[in-house]
Write a structure and sequence with these properties.
Layout (H helix, E strand, L loop, with lengths): L10 E5 L15 H13 L4 E4 L3 E2 L11 E5 L6 H13 L3 E6 L9 H6 L13 E2 L20 E4 L4 E4 L14 H16 L4 E4 L47 H12 L5 E5 L6 H9 L7 E3 L11 H14 L5 E4 L8 H4 L4 H13 L3 E5 L19 H6 L42 H5 L5 H14 L1 H5 L1 E8 L2 E8 L2 E8 L5 E4 L6 E2 L14 E4 L4 E7 L3
Parallel strand pairs: 1-2, 1-13, 2-5, 5-9, 9-10, 10-11, 11-12, 12-13
Antiparallel strand pairs: 3-4, 6-8, 7-8, 14-15, 15-16, 16-20, 17-19, 18-20
Helix pairs in contact: 1-2, 4-5, 9-12
The structure holds 1-O-alpha-D-glucopyranosyl-D-fructose and calcium ion.
């Protein structure tokens, strides 16, 4: 197919459906709301949307606990509404990627209801069941990310079942061939319905060690970006056996084989602070595996400086030279980066330009293009079980999940008429879409420009990346594709700095994008948070 490589270098806009647009006044965003706002998404110039789960679910983890993979939760609409999303998106030139959560189901899924009914039913081995130790304790030391042991006692089977997340998210047993077949059928169902790809939740958790060996402990310096090891002991373990098993690859190959023929692409979420880039290398090198893995490197607690970015790129080049990352600064699981990195608008602009110039695909989380700060959510309003468990050390994920602000001054900022499931942030109102549309200096327009810049230059979207240098706060590198070369330099700091231009006849490529410094030969001076993107075309 002609655009088989559409995912390479693509810009993907993440929609969290509960909080995007409510169309019927029940306070919860829905698929009809997405249809209504898709023209806005298309106006950003992005290539695709990734829609977080909208499947039937008891919503214990807000859709990441699925009880029917092949239907839409009534809260979000019906299958016909999803068809309308596909039709509208395709009409606007947008690909649609849906979020498949295959590693675990809800405990309300009929498969689990059957599995837990006895030790000898047809689906008895569809989940990870294990006998207790002689003293009654769990079979090993595995822990849940959301707190406590990864094992939940079941009084009927008199066994434990595995859950990497909530107790209501039992882990599927990928060692069971029928489980793999059933999940591949789910992928096929949605491909037949017209989706263009998948964001695959927790792709590295699919297979567990069949021998259930204990995880070793982790050296204390290797911390999780989101939550300190002191607060959650999960981050004290080296997760050698509960995830990242080599058998994952065999399942991913089967999944890819199903996707072939549909021109579909997948971005696999690999949550692993320690081995993330290695796994990306394993999972995305070769035409029979995943196209992309979602990178956690820039979801860091602190803003990566020039050194930090260069270091990530060096490690990536080492661990995954053929691999393809999908970068993100924000998502529905982590404090919005405007707040997490305590940035002003100039810094937000520069970091966005940087991502649009880096080798890889890119995810933009709804509201990031507005520069939204994290919302303050009071304990009484918290919805996220992860936040409720670890409050106040870790405030959970609600602060990045509040309703998107569309029209300042409108009821609930234009999200919908009913009381929203999380309060609309007062601090975000002034940054609403309608305010920024009429202000040509607003961040929203900058996002449009950088996305357009990336699309105008195949070197940025899919070129090779060389000459990575970090000197003080200055980061520079070259992207190249066919006869086009771009020199990209970023001042990731307040103090003006100079960067040496490589020899050649460079022209300013960035147009009205910030830091429109006209480069000549020699050095270019960049002010605080400025960049220079220069182009050279061979044979002209
Ligand atoms: O997240 C996987 C993951 O690694 C997260 O647990 C992350 O570390 C955590 O949310 C802390 O910020 C995916 C989904 O993105 C998340 O929303 C789900 O809760 C989770 O899987 C379980 O399905
Ligand atoms: Ca609704």
């Amino acid at each position: 197919a002609k655009d088989q490589d559409w995912w390479r270098g693509a810009v993907i806009y993440q929609i969290y459906p509960r909080s995007f647009q409510d169309s019927n006044g029940d306070g919860i965003g829905d698929l009809a709301g997405i249809v209504r706002r898709l023209p806005y998404v298309a106006s950003l110039g992005v290539d695709a949307v990734w829609i977080s789960p909208f499947f039937t679910s008891p919503m214990k983890d807000f859709g990441y606990d699925v009880s029917d993979y092949c239907d839409v939760d009534p809260m979000f609409g019906a299958l016909s509404d999803f068809d309308a999303v596909i039709e509208a998106a395709h009409g606007l030139g947008l690909k649609v990627m849906i979020d498949l959560v295959l590693s675990h189901t809800s405990d309300q899924h009929p498969w689990f209801v059957e599995s837990r009914a006895s030790r000898d039913n047809a689906r008895a081995n569809w989940y990870v069941w294990a006998d207790p130790k002689p003293d009654g304790t769990p079979p090993n030391n595995w822990l849940s990310i959301f707190g406590g042991p990864a094992w939940q006692w079941d009084a009927r089977r008199m066994q434990y079942y595995l859950h990497n997340f909530l107790t209501s998210q039992p882990d599927m047993n990928f060692h069971e061939p029928d489980v793999q077949d059933a999940l591949l059928d789910v992928a096929k169902f949605w491909l037949e319905r017209g989706v263009d790809g998948f964001r695959l939740d927790t792709i590295n958790f699919y297979v567990h060690d069949a021998q259930l060996r204990d995880n070793p402990s982790l050296p204390p310096e290797l911390r999780n970006a989101n939550i300190a090891p002191e607060v959650n002991p999960y981050n004290h373990q080296d997760h050698q056996y509960d995830k990242n098993q080599p058998e994952n690859l065999a399942f991913l190959r089967r999944l890819r084989a199903v996707m072939n023929g549909y021109n579909a692409a997948a971005v696999g979420e690999v949550g692993d602070a320690q081995y993330g880039l290695q796994i990306m290398g394993e999972y995305t090198s070769g035409d029979d595996l995943m196209q992309m893995c979602y990178a956690f490197e820039f979801l860091s607690p602190d803003m990566p400086g020039a050194d930090g970015v260069a270091d990530v790129m060096a490690r990536l080049a080492e661990a995954a030279p053929e691999g393809w990352p999908c970068w993100a600064y924000s998502n529905h699981d982590i404090m919005r980066h405007a707040t997490r990195w305590n940035m002003g608008t100039d810094a937000l602009r520069l970091m966005n330009t940087l991502m649009m110039c880096l080798r890889g695909s890119a995810c933009i989380y709804q509201g990031e293009e507005l520069g939204l700060p994290e919302a303050d959510v009071a304990f009484e309003d918290l919805q996220d079980p992860y936040g409720i468990e670890f409050w106040p050390e870790f405030k959970g994920r609600d602060g990045c999940r509040t309703p998107l602000v569309w029209e300042a001054g409108a009821v609930n900022a234009g999200f919908g008429d009913g009381k929203p499931w999380l309060p609309v942030s007062a601090a975000q109102q002034a940054l609403a879409v309608d305010q920024q549309e009429t202000d040509s200096t607003a961040l929203l327009h900058h996002y449009r420009q950088t996305i357009a810049l990336r699309h105008a230059h195949p070197a940025l979207a899919k070129g090779v990346q060389t000459g990575m240098r970090a000197t003080g706060d200055m980061l520079s590198f070259i992207r190249q594709h066919e006869n086009e070369q771009l020199f990209c330099a970023f001042n990731l700091g307040e103090a003006p700095q100079e960067v040496l231009m490589p020899v050649g006849d460079w022209k300013n490529a960035a147009g009205s994008v910030q830091g429109a410094v006209a480069p000549g030969e020699g050095a270019v001076r960049l002010g605080a948070w400025q960049c220079c993107i220069a182009i050279k075309t061979e044979g002209e």
